[in-house]
Fold each of these.
Amino acid sequence: MLAQTSVPTPKESSLFADARTRLDRALKYVSMSEDALGRLKYPKASLCVSIPVRMDNGSLSVFQGYRVRYDDTRGPGKGGVRYHPNVSMDEVQSLAFWMTFKCALLNLPFGGAKGGIALNPKELSRQELERLSRGYIDAIADFIGPDIDILAPDVYTNATIMGWMMDQYSIIKRKVSPAVVTGKPVMMGGSQGRESATAMGAYYAIATLLPKFDLIPEQTTVAIQGFGNVGGILADVLWQAGYKVVAVSDSQGGLYAEQGLDIPSLRQYKAERKTMKAVYCQDTVCNVVEHQTISNEELLTLDVDILIPAALENQITELNAADIQAKYIFEVANGPINSAADRILEDRGIYVFPDILINAGGVTVSYFEWVQNRSGLYWNLEKVNQRLKERMVEETENTWKIGKELDVSMRAAAYIHALNRLGEALDAKGTRDYYLNGH
Ligand code: NAD
């Protein structure tokens, strides 16, 4: 049996209140009008719905769903839909807040939004999941749209679910509306490269940043928490680039091998058997290799060069920040480090590369998908990845430059960069000065 130690929960606090402290810290370095700031402190619109679903056994279950459009000054809201038991208005609001800054940071013509349903999707049949996903769209159809708010996948949602959602929206509107949802199956108007986009974007950022610290892949050890869509693909991409991925984990626990794990074999095994094992596979024959089973908590505190949280928020808090041994943390998950831990890590000289930059590849290719849906002209994988790389490298370099110039952390630099763009857009609608003094 794997050890089942869970990550301790920090002091009861609102995730959103904690998320907003990042804004306060960056504000010292940004000249922003009070009006603009006031607008960014609260979400523009929040919707809470109940979704009745007829279950396979004939009973009726009612699920709680949410959609928050945080800001749409720079364009329609954009953000994923999460299926998880912990989904709440507080979490969705925080995720929508991060999306607002992420889209501005990557200079995408979108605001920030997010949605979710509180449930354990593993307890539902495929048919029940489809009825739930279509029911969610029935409930929020008037709140979303290709020019209002665009959906995408997040934790425990995928291309199939996005396809159902797009289809349901099209049925309601009586016209095919692919641009309301991104991350769809390619055959339904999805973009090439969307599934791997978040992982590829993270890889381009990592490959841009590590040479600044004279790190080379072959001598760099990596631990990744979360082996899902993003964590699994990123593990593979890093492994192919020569990095030594020594530990990975999923919700069941983790695996550690000092000599490095054979990531393609692990992915093959997990895809076939839905469970993780440290194996080496040749064709269909997989043999277990030397390894240790570890808990998720142990993975976070391993002595590795790079730690990549790629699962859920609040994994590194004031309770375990002092035990982190990695020198560089790349936040692939949204909000895996709380603000109290941020300070501890900074004091200890650990570099944190923030979520709004590192995982922005997903929304960037979602933007490409939206553009392709609206133009009707579709790009090949090479073009998608080339455009993703250009944007990730450019904004990673810009953020790095701001960090160096102002001598602030990469997180503060990312917020400063995004705030500058958001502030300019908000002020373009008119400021106090404009109305009082005519300029
Ligand atoms: P996913 O559902 O494909 O994978 C989630 C993974 O986390 C799974 O391996 C699951 O077993 C694991 N997990 C769940 N609970 C865990 C726990 N307590 N400890 C350790 N592992 C746990 O989701 P994903 O799409 O890979 O998203 C992962 C993270 O990346 C999320 O924070 C999400 O918001 C963020 N993200 C995703 C995208 C995207 O395009 N999918 C884009 C930007 C950010």
Amino acid sequence: MKYYLFGNWKCNPTNAQEAKKLFSDTAKGVKRSEKVETAVFPPFCYLAEFAGKKKEVAIGAQNCCFKESGAFTGEVSPKQIADLECKYVLIGHSERRKLFFETDGFVNEKTKLALSFDLIPVVCVGETDEDRTAGRAVEVVKNQLAAGLKDVDVKKVFAAYEPVWAIGTGKACGIAEAREMARVIREVLGPDTPILYGGSANAKNGAVYLKEAGYNGLLVGGASLKADEFAKMFQEIEGLE
Ligand code: PGA
């Protein structure tokens, strides 16, 4: 079984010196391993500095444009990201959906374009607190998958289940709910798509999602900004049978 430990730095750190330190400390805390693949997703401004530099840590972008090039002020295209030796790109993170009005249609266009440049899209899905309370969690996630991955070869993408209410709140998803959603996503995507869990994952709870809830890896936000915590997560995952 291959596992994945992915760190989403979001809009952090705020200067190059700290970013370089976090990257080198992260690389020191993990190993290149057959069993666990580690990747980090720094802000765009650090991608060129880090991509292809450490064999222990693959690099991904946190977003990409839905077009290859042209008049799209402020955007970075998947072709430009691929050209930097990045391997992954996050698509449809809930913060993009909520704060930057990204729709499933955009997610679908970006995913297809990223694939055309041989990037591996990590397509994020997840319900809000309101959706879950109303009993719509499974329906929302299924709809996001159907629309976001329409006409996509799902064997070439990763999916990340990140319940919105669990992101950055310290309230990680319960194992039973996480297991149920992994089952639903697996039913939709089939056996070949790695499925990650994200949402307040840390060194204490992270490996449990892999061991007991059927996930292939973790997408880690806050805890990936602490190299020692991230290293512990790596060790926990490497220690799984
Ligand atoms: P968190 O973020 O680990 O800080 O909850 C996860 C994510 O947004 O990918």
